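Narrative progress, year one. The postdoctoral researcher (J.K.) led the effort to move from monomer predictions toward full complexes, under supervision of the PI. The following entry was the first complex the group processed end to end, covering 233 residues in total.
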Amino acid sequence: MKKAQNHTTYDEMFAKGGKDDPYQLPYWLSCYYPMYLAVLDEIKSNGCSSVFEIGCGTGGLAHLLKDRHPIEYRGVDFSSVAIEKAVKRTNNPDAFFVADALSPELYQNTESTIICTEVLEHIPQDLKLVELWPAGTYCICSVPNYDSQYHERFFKEETEIISRYGHLIEINKIKRIKKPILENIAKSNLLRHLRWNRYRPKRLLELLGFGDFDEVGGWFVFSGKRRSTENEE
Ligand SMILES: C[S@@+](CC[C@H](N)C(=O)[O-])C[C@H]1O[C@@H](n2cnc3c(N)ncnc32)[C@H](O)[C@@H]1O
């Protein structure tokens, strides 16, 4: 059964944490790291000059940008616990604020790029959210290919993404990123799991990154310009 989510659900989840929680780990040890790297590639190849991250969570991507590609950055999330952690992680209190991403007044600034990873699938009114993004803004988003009690929807093929978001975003690229099997991708953790699974060849291959995208799960990272309102259906 789908679980309704509001900021309290996320506050509780982020407060609980846990040693292998990918949202508490340093970004380079989190299973989200390959997806963040795909976003970074996209930012670089498009020469994006400034970023507004919607649903920035605990700031993993913001931290990676700070370390590897310093850029003008603003991040919003409706979980105050997530924002506290993002501020602590990046030591940049001015970059983050707490608000509901569905508030139209958030979109008055003129950042060149909106980033929205692993958020759209959690929001029943995802299309309403994208509609708020200013025309001409470059958008980099990710959505999963697997279901969860927290997902309103998920996608199996690129065509499904185009048919849901294509009238709002002029999608020019969709990249498949496999999700690592382990939430904590530290080498020591991988070695431990390789040892434990030494008699399970399929699992060993999956741990080494040779699993099938549909079976092990992953993300579609897609990007393109927000269309002007005249083109919306
Ligand atoms: C699965 S997490 C993804 C976090 C981050 N984008 C990442 O990829 O690491 C989803 C995030 O979206 C936030 N979120 C969900 N609905 C939101 C809304 N309506 N307004 C603001 N933030 C929202 C949650 O609080 C949570 O931090």
